Amino acid sequence: MDINSIMSSELAQLQQTVQMSVLQNAMNMQATAAVQLLEQMPEPAQAAHPYKGASIDVQV
Questions:
Q1: Distances (CA, A) of 28 to 16, 18, 33
Q2: Which of 30, 39, 44, 47 is 20 to 30 Å apart from 23, CA to CA?
Q3: Residues 15, 7: Cα–Cα separation, whole Å
Q4: Name one Pfam family in it (predicted).
């Protein structure tokens, strides 16, 4: 193998490694942003039961 082939192969591997690293960092940042958005969401209000404790129905 000549030096040009070896260097070309090494460069291709390095480019792939860098691309994967950038992709992984982007995914981590997006996951962090999603977690922050979920943490900032207000707590949902507890829905009242439709009839328990609201009224007493007494029929005679």
A1: 18, 15, 9
A2: 39
A3: 12
A4: YjfB_motility
pLDDT in tens, the chain (60 residues): 699 999 999 999 999 999 999 999 999 999 999 999 989 988 877 777 777 766 666 776
Amino acid at 60: V
Record the pTM: 0.55
Region of residue 53 (left: phi > 0; alpha: psi -120 to 50; beta: else) = left
The total number of residues shown for the chain amounts to 60
